[in-house]
């Protein structure tokens, strides 16, 4: 399964002998990005080759990352990909073993003390024995600027909860209060760790609306998530983390495209050699199934994932076969994401090919 | 920062159960210990039981409220992740410690006053007006030292360990500082150690006033020194705490 070409998506393959080469590719690409931004504003967040291990577990491995003002960035990855560790390092809750993390050109601690950061943690509890309004007011007053209280409550959709005791909230309500705390200070950078966990669909929609509003006001928003639709819908930049490294960095559309995110489905009447099909260009996966309903007819359904549907279909006709019911459809980010992460988990042989 | 202090005080006042027991417990203990005592001076001292224990029980009660209350609540808040969340705001470490001390002081003041009222009403303790005021103020201000100690312990210990540790510190300091029995009946070597403990200095503020004099400068210095030490440690631990707990 090869799924990488040069471009916005960089695949780094841990454990492979060609790893160095892959890394060099990543570095080159990053340098280009930096150059492109050089004329623009300085990065809000910068990770320079940051590593962090817990005992033998390498949570973050030479992570190189820069976020620019006004970006809405999704940090995407399966559990254990290093999302929470990355956010902890970013917020100065943990210190890197190697490399440097800077926020607004200074240390995370100093940036936070200057009131530039609003954050919502997955593990962040709330103060008990106080009303929602009192707690939000506290978060607002702790920062140098800050919105009017009623506006914060309205934006987070918790106006009706204002007089409620914090101890008496449901999981989804608590999340919205946490969001209010993270945004109360009118901070330049907002960091949210899996913000919609425990929310139902409708409150998630409201929440996304609130998040977009923050982004429109020019704030930099970084959120970790494993809800792929969230990354797809909200973020203008998606960073896929895998095993503590940046696996892919680009827009949701780019990642989908680069991960072989087109599905081609068709039926074949005539017998067709499977190896001939698997030799089609830009193929990332192939399944052939006998069509059970039309027993005896010999019709089979072929499902293909490809990086370039046009080229694949063109080559298909070139094989001399006549596909029926041809359908080409886009894949969701989810499938792209699975393709990316499984690609990097494959054998070193495939990995070498990929790195080349 | 003032919002946090206000909020911590409101929260302490809302916690009716904790408030009730913290306030009731010292006068009850006072009556149990000094209730049946006569008016003869304690051997080696000029004060009788009623006077001596009014000061030490007020001190002990204040210490209970601030030390145990603070350490346990902070350990719990750390466990729940609230402190972690708070650390991501622009709040400086000293603001957190100040708020916790303020909340503790809100609970300790009524318990101190109640011991004094009970002493006056039941044991007929009679003092000059300035003595009452000086004892109340001294005992209240002195409790800040133990509130800061409570914050520091809440940061050193986690969940399950916090109670045994704070209990050990609390009983050890109370006993060795002479809050339960006058120091004069303890062996000399214990007295030598006790002299430098914050609890001894704490009780000595009040007893010096009862004896008709001003609190000793040495005791005030010891208490202030411990306050700086504990508050500094607490603020440092607050900022440094990176454990998820």
TrEMBL record, chain B:
Keywords (A to Z) from UniProt: Antibiotic resistance, Membrane, Transmembrane, Transmembrane helix
A cellular-component GO term for this protein: ATP-binding cassette (ABC) transporter complex
Single Gene Ontology MF annotation: ABC-type transporter activity
Membrane topology (UniProt): Multi-pass membrane protein
Transmembrane segments: 18-37, 49-68, 97-120, 132-156, 168-190, 220-238
GO biological process: response to antibiotic
Subcellular location: Membrane
Limits of the ABC-2 type transporter transmembrane domain: 52-235
Domain of life: Bacteria
Protein name (database record): ABC transporter permease
């Amino acid at each position: 399964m090869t799924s990488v070409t040069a471009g916005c998506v960089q695949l780094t393959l841990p454990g492979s002998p060609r790893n160095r080469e892959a890394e060099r590719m990543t570095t080159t690409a990053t340098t280009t990005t930096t150059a492109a931004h050089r004329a623009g504003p300085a990065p809000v967040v910068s990770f320079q080759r940051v590593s962090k291990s817990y005992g033998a577990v390498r949570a973050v491995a030479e992570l190189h990352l820069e976020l620019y003002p006004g970006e809405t960035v999704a940090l995407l990855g399966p559990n254990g990909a290093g999302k929470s560790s990355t956010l902890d390092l970013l917020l100065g809750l943990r210190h890197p073993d190697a490399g440097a993390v800077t926020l607004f050109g200074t240390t995370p601690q100093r940036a936070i003390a200057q009131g530039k950061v609003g954050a919502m943690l997955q593990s962040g509890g709330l103060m008990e024995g106080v009303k929602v309004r009192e707690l939000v007011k506290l978060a607002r007053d702790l920062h140098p600027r800050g919105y009017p209280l009623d506006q914060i409550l309205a934006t987070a959709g918790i106006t009706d909860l204002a007089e409620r005791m914090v101890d008496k909230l449901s999981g989804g309500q608590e999340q919205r209060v946490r969001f209010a705390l993270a945004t109360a200070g009118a901070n330049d950078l907002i960091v949210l760790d899996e913000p919609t966990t425990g929310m139902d669909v409708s409150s998630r929609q409201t929440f996304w609306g609130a998040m977009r509003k923050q982004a429109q006001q020019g704030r930099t928003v970084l959120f970790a998530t494993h809800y792929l639709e969230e990354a797809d819908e909200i973020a203008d930049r998606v960073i896929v983390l895998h095993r503590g490294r940046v696996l892919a960095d680009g827009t949701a559309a780019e990642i989908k495209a680069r991960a072989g995110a087109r599905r081609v489905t068709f039926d074949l009447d005539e017998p067709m050699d499977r190896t001939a099909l698997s030799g089609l260009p830009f193929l990332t996966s192939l399944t052939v199934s006998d069509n059970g309903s039309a027993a005896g007819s010999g019709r089979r359904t072929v499902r293909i994932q490809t990086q370039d549907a046009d080229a694949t279909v063109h080559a298909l006709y070139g094989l001399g076969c006549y596909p029926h019911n041809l359908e080409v459809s886009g894949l969701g980010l989810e499938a792209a994401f699975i393709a990316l992460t499984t690609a990097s988990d494959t054998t070193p042989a495939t990995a070498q090919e990929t790195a080349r | 920062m003032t919002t946090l202090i206000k909020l911590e005080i409101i929260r302490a006042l809302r916690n009716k159960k904790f408030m009730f027991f913290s306030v009731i417990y010292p006068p009850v203990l006072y009556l149990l210990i000094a209730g049946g005592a006569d008016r003869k001076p304690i051997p080696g001292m000029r004060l009788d039981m009623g006077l001596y224990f009014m000061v030490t029980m007020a001190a002990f009660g204040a210490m209970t409220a601030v030390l145990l209350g603070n350490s346990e609540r902070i350990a719990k808040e750390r466990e729940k992740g609230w402190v972690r969340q708070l650390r991501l705001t622009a709040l400086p470490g000293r603001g957190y410690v100040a708020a916790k001390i303020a909340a503790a002081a809100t609970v300790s003041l009524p318990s101190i006053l109640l011991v004094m009222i009970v002493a006056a009403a039941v044991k007929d303790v009679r003092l000059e007006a300035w003595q009452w005021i000086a004892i109340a103020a001294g005992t209240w201000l002195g409790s800040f030292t133990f509130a800061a100690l409570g914050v520091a312990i809440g940061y050193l210990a986690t969940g399950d360990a916090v109670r045994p540790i704070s209990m050990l510190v609390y009983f050890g300091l109370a006993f060795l500082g002479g809050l339960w029995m006058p120091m004069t009946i303890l062996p000399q070597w214990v007295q030598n150690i006790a002299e430098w403990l914050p609890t001894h200095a704490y009780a000595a503020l009040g007893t010096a006033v009862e004896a008709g004099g001003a609190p000793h400068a040495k005791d005030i210095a010891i208490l202030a020194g411990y306050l700086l030490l504990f508050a500094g440690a607490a603020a440092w631990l607050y900022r440094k705490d990176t454990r998820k707990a």
